Amino acid sequence: MIQSLSVDRPVGGEEVSEQLVSQARLVLGVAKILFENGQSTDQTVVTATRLARALDLDVTIIPRWGELQLVGSTGDGRALEAIAANPTGINMDRVAAASSLCDDLVESRRTADAAMPTLATIAARPPAPTWQFALAAAAAAVALAVIFGIQHASSAIIIFLSAGAGALLRRRLAPLSGNLFLQPFCASLLSGVVGALAVRYHLSSSLRLVAVCPCMVLVPGPHVLNGMMDLIRGRVALGASRLLYATLIIAAITAGLLLGFAFFGISLPVDPQAPPVPLWMDMLASGVAVAGYAIFFSMPPSMMAWPVAVGVVAHGVRWGALELGQGVTMGALLACVVVGIALTLIARRRHMPFAAIGFAAVVSMVPGVFIFRMASGLLLVGADPTGSSELLADAIGNGITATTIIFAMSLGLIVPKLIIDQLDGGSFGKGSPR
After folding, report:
1. What share of the chain is helix, strand, coil (3-state, %, to 5)?
2. What pairing do the DSSP bridges indicate for beta strands 6-8 and 59-64?
3. Within this chain, do residues 71 and 184 fall inside the same structural domain, yes or no?
4. Are residues 262 and 359 located together in one domain of the fold?
5. 189 and 311: one domain?
6. Do the beta carbons of residue 158 and residue 208 sit within 8 Å?
7. CA nearest 85: which of 100, 69, 61, 101?
8. Which of 79, 177, 254, 319 has the fewest Cβ atoms within 10 Å of its own Cβ atom?
């Protein structure tokens, strides 16, 4: 991993000391693990800069899509060091381990020389076992179906089996192809075929949750939220790259779902009416969904209780906002504000990476269903241009709703954290910044 580092010597031909190169590699190695496995860009930079300062390096970390650069003073010249890094993965076990290693280095519990082998071990940590991955995807899909108003046990069983089979298919395809979009496309195609068969044999309601919910667990919520947070923090190029990557994955999921429907002449309703769900059922299902996503993201078991507890409360807030007629966007905003405040404080006190516990708590609110409905509506309009303008309006409305929910969620997560960080003395105050 670290061997791909390239070093430009300072102006004037002065050699960079081996110790300095080794320290720079350590800083970039920690940053690479965080950056590639789902940590927010801001916290990646904070953690890496904190480590650099502990090693007496006067450097700046510059994150870009595809690489991390370290720029700083070295004697009489300037040095630029870079390492390839693509933020396409989610593995919160690696994020937590790299953050803990950084704490040990900063607090002198471990030497830099001893840390390099540990860093390689952390980077090679495997994701959640396949059986856990499949079970988590299946349970989360059923939980989302409950939140959206599923009414029949037979549909829940089909969703469980379809989502689990899709997860197994993804793991099977992973070693066969490095294409980032093949896995979600094939899993969603399977869900679309299963959902279409369920509709054909009258095993699904008009909500088409049998097909939609297994696809919703495929939506790359952390990449969407990380991209939005980068844009809010002014990292326009990186934020746009993250959002483009997430958009391409969502496009692959949507294409697979709708193609599976098209094989059997089935369409996804653009504006179905979901039945109301009791508060206790909504909160219980949300707890199952958050736990499923936590396993999905390879979160350490010791951290799982916090996002589950906060996620349940947040869904209760969202449910209350909907009951008061505030709409799904305001409900998502209020819920994410609760998560942003609670988990920022918990992350600081418990020395946990914010992304590791924050994304799992809210990612079930990412509006994948609205995106799927928008795409289906646009296809229906394209197939029959003389059709009702109401269908087009509904499709556009779903797209606007999805966009505003994502923006509201991003604001709800990041603004409380920014305020708390500022009140606590900024990102480089006392204690471990998370």
Report:
1. 70, 5, 25
2. unpaired
3. no
4. yes
5. yes
6. no
7. 69
8. 177
Which tens digit of pLDDT belongs to each residue from 155-196? 999 999 999 999 999 999 999 988 999 999 999 999 999 999
Q: What is the mean pLDDT of residues 299-323?
A: 92
What is the spatial distance between Cα 67 and Cα 203, in angstroms, rounded to a whole number?
Answer: 48
CB 428 within 8 A of CB 46: yes
Residue range of the domain that includes 116: 2-123
Rounded Cα gap, residues 215 and 365, in angstroms:
14
Taking residue 51's Cβ as centre, other Cβ atoms within 10 Å add up to 26
Rounded to two decimals, the pTM is 0.88
What value does the CA radius of gyration of the chain take, rounded to a whole number of Å?
23
> What is the model's pLDDT at position 12?
39
Encode pLDDT of 414-430 as tens digits: 889 888 878 875 443 34
Q: Kindly report the CA angle at 171 between 167 and 174, in degrees rounded to 5? A: 135
Judgement on whether residues 156 and 101 belong to the same structural domain of the protein = no
What span, in angstroms and rounded, lies between the C-alpha atoms of 345 and 417? 9
Residue 311 has pLDDT above 60, yes or no: yes
Q: What's the burial of 259, exposed, middle or buried (CB within 10 Å: 0-12/13-18/19+)?
A: middle
Count of structural domains within the chain: 2
- What dihedral do alpha carbons 200, 218, 165, 283 form, nearest 10°? -80
Per-residue pLDDT of 381-393, as tens digits, reads 776 666 677 788 8
Q: What is the pLDDT of residues 270-305, one digit of tens each?
A: 766 777 899 999 999 999 999 999 998 999 988 899
Q: 325: which residues sit within 8 A by CB, 6+ positions away?
A: none
